Amino acid sequence: MNIKKQFVEGLTTNNPVLVQQIGMCATMAITTTLFNGVGMGLSVLIILTCCNVVVSAIRKIIPDEIRLAIFVVVIAGFVTIVDLLLQAFIPALSAALGVFIPLIVVNCIIIGRAEAFCQKNPLGPCFFDGIFQGLGYTCVLILMCVFREFTGSGRFGGGLIDISNGFRFTLDGTGAGIQIFPSEYGASIMNLPFGGFITLGLLLAVMQYALKKSAKKKELAERAAAEAAALAEKEADE
After folding, report:
1. Are the beta carbons of 72 and 94 closer than 8 angstroms?
2. DSSP state letter for 166
3. How would you class 201 by CB atoms within 10 Å of its CB: exposed for 0-12, middle for 13-18, buried for 19 or more?
4. What is the predicted pLDDT for the residue at 171?
5. Any bridge partners for residue 178, and if so which?
6. Which of the four pLDDT bands, split at 50, 70 and 90, describes residue 203?
7. Nearest Cα to Cα of residue 206 among 17, 40, 59
8. Would you say residue 222 has pLDDT above 90?
9. 170 contacts 162 by C-beta, under 8 angstroms
10. DSSP-derived pairing of the beta strands 178-179 and 168-169
């Protein structure tokens, strides 16, 4: 079990949104405020981790013929638990996310990890895979929320941060956030669904550029090492 490798994969090289490009519908739809992004990201992280652990624990007794059906049942169970907890303790977040919480049942990130990773690996790696993949998803949501809020409304931390009576975090969604510049100077299109497409497209472009640059750097390093080895061997023969 290589925890460091799993951490890097979850955040960068195998990020569920920016590299695998799955689970993008909710990503574009709910990233209008930091309150929504943090809430959705943590919900997916908890559900993904719990589902990974359960699927890994029962993987050897699941018949292949009904494998996907069992995965959906497990996911639906944890989604229901999280949905009810949000309704009971953070109703503002439940109302803000609306149908996108129940739709986690068919989120490709969770089903994909169950199918591609958890049914083949023991409990330990699956537990950390759920945490790191969920963390990678949450980070993308937060980046999108911050960018869309700032460019669209000149604000940071909408729904989550309240500075009217000192700096504090709120869970009722009423925090006005920190107004950095007047909202009338913002690009209001970023608050609309189209803003989600723009923001996600920019993040995808940046990630692909970074991955290609990293791959090219690695290739040059390997080539230099191979040339150095060949030169050393030639000198040894002489």
Report:
1. no
2. B
3. exposed
4. 85
5. 156
6. very high
7. 17
8. no
9. yes
10. unpaired
